Amino acid sequence: MLLGSFIDSASIPIPIDVLMGMWAWNDRQHFYVYALLAALGSTLGGLIPFYVGRAGGELFLLNRVNRARFESMRTQFEKQEFLAIMVPSLMPPPTPWKLFVFGAGVFEMQTLNFMLAVFTGRLIRFGVETALVVKYGPQIVNVVGDLARKHLAATLSVLVLIFGGLGWWMWRKLRTKRLDDASQAL
User: Fold this and answer.
1) How many structural domains are present in the chain?
2) Are residues 125 and 155 in the same domain?
3) Which own/partner contact pairs does 21-28 have at CB distance under 8 Å and 24+ positions apart?
4) In terms of domains, do 101 and 160 share one?
5) What distance in Å separates the CA atoms of residue 103 and residue 100, rounded to the nearest whole number?
6) Residue 146: pLDDT above 80?
7) Alpha-helical regions (H) of the chain
8) For residue 47, what pLDDT band results from cuts at 50, 70 and 90?
9) Same domain, residue pair 113 and 91
10) Which of 110, 51, 52, 55 is nearest to 78 (CA)?
11) Which of 45, 77, 124, 162 has its C-alpha lying 20 to 30 A from 62's C-alpha?
12) pLDDT tens per residue, range 92-131
């Protein structure tokens, strides 16, 4: 599972969801191990397109978009860089995940934050998939994937609402803490 998800994220697409579902179904007691290994392998494999983007991606993008558009993309990415990587990491294929990873390298996201975002997103995705397979059988992965693709706008809207609410909650907590620290300093 570790090697397969590494290869899938690094270069050659492999139907990792199907393989993981089969292995989780055959070894239901240890389904969570497959999700952890797949998330770890995907995180480590994602470092390859990430570093390719960091090494020469800026020139690649500047050949395709003008400087103003490039800077606009950089600004947008930096505002929500963690979510810009975590949300695509949650999405099933055919999401162009490697393009987001390449972009994270181009816009010089910190490696640790990148790895944490990918690991978190992939762990949630693979954990839900393996839990569904164990509960309902291997066919559920195809059913959920088809529903997500057919209702992509609704799926993305729900994810945006969930992560937007989470971001707002975290922002309020940080703001309250800063205000409390500032009042204690006086």
Assistant:
1) 2
2) no
3) 21/129, 21/130, 21/133, 21/138, 21/141, 22/138, 24/129, 24/130, 24/133, 24/134, 25/133, 25/134, 25/137, 25/138, 28/134
4) no
5) 5
6) no
7) 2-10, 16-26, 31-62, 67-79, 81-90, 97-106, 111-136, 139-150, 152-185
8) very high
9) yes
10) 110
11) 45
12) 877 788 888 888 898 888 999 999 999 999 999 999 988 8
Contacts of 21 (CB under 8 A, 6+ apart): 129, 130, 133, 138, 141
Token digits for 84?
């810009």
Q: In this structure, are residues 122 and 74 in contact, taking their beta carbons and an 8 Å threshold?
A: no
pTM above 0.90, yes or no: no
In this structure, the chain runs to a length of 186
Same domain for 117 and 29?
yes
* Identity of the highest mean pLDDT range in 93-97, 137-141, 144-148, 176-180: 93-97
Interval 152-181 mean pLDDT: 75
